[in-house]
Amino acid sequence: MTKDVIALTPRMPDPWAVLAGLLSGGPDKLVGTRGEGAVIQLCDPEGRPLVSVEAPLLVSVEGEAERLLGATAPPVPYWWTEARATTGVAEAEQLAGTFATRLASLLGGSAWPPDAAGSLAVVKTDGVSVAPEPAAAQPAIDVLTERVAVVIQDRPVVAMTAWLSDAFRAAAEAGLGLQIVSPAGTTLSPAVRDALGGWPSRWIVQDERDGYYDGLTGAVLRWQDGMFAPVASPDATEDDPRTPVAATFQEVRDTGERQLALTFRMVHPADDRLVLGGGLETVWRELTGAPPAGWGTSEPATLPWSPRRLTDVAHERAPEPTWFVVVGNRDRPALATVRITRTEAGVEEHVTLAFGYDSSEEPPLDALPAAAEALATRHHLQSMLVQLRKARRNVAVPPRFEGPGVPLAFVLGAEEVRAMPGDRARRTPLAEQPVTLGPRTRPALYYPLPGDPSDLSGWQDFEQLMRHLKGA
Question: What is the pTM of this model?
Answer without folding.
Answer: 0.90
